[in-house]
Design a protein that fits this description.
180 residues; alpha+beta; Pathogenesis-related Protein p14a; six-stranded mixed β-sheet; 5 helices; 6 strands; 18% strand; CAP_sf; SCP domain-containing protein; CAP_dom
């Protein structure tokens, strides 16, 4: 009986730690893009596109995108258009934050967050937490720092990515673009 109780406590702790949420501490936002900033995409070992993303993660991304646009619509904002160009950067950043989750949006080599795609990225949200899109988006949209980007009328495009490591932890990145 005691062994079963200890085992269930350990499972609960393990599940809590896997779903432990981590948010950024600052808003990653800028008012203009610059084409002259060097793109630094070799910061994480391996290419995030070397292997196809599995259907489960694609479904999470699709659901998250739908939740964002439904929330924007409730606020009277236009939906964000999916950007395949931003998608590359979002996949890179989701992989990077699985290696180093810097709450100030600094990349593993010390470069700023927007250097992943400096000619189009105006904003970034990062999150470690749920592997359930509805729960992840509810938490993300409730974060005061991150909701500013999700609800910004300055942004017209978005791409979201999620990376799941071998421990079952989920790392989310959303990149935003616009007409600045």
């Amino acid at each position: 009986m005691l062994v079963a109780a200890i085992a269930s406590i350990l499972v609960i702790r393990k599940n809590r730690s896997r779903d432990a949420e981590v948010f950024s501490e600052v808003r990653a936002y800028r008012t203009e893009v610059s084409a002259d900033t060097e793109i630094l995409d070799d910061l994480v070992p391996g290419d995030p596109f070397a292997y196809p993303m599995d259907d489960e993660l694609r479904n999470l991304i699709s659901e998250a995108y739908d939740v964002v646009n439904a929330a924007r619509q409730e606020q009277g904002l236009k939906p964000l258009v999916w950007s395949s160009t931003l998608e590359y950067g979002a996949r890179v950043r989701a992989n990077e934050i699985a290696v180093v989750f810097d709450k100030n949006h600094v990349r593993p080599n010390g470069a700023m967050w927007f250097t992943v795609e400096p000619s189009i990225v105006l904003g970034e949200n990062i999150y470690k937490g749920y592997g359930d899109a509805s729960k992840a988006m509810e938490s993300w949209l409730s974060s005061s720092t991150d909701s500013e980007n999700f609800f910004s009328s300055d942004f017209t495009t978005v791409a979201i990515s999620v990376y799941e490591n071998n421990k079952g932890e989920h790392y989310w990145a959303a990149l935003f673009g616009g007409k600045k």
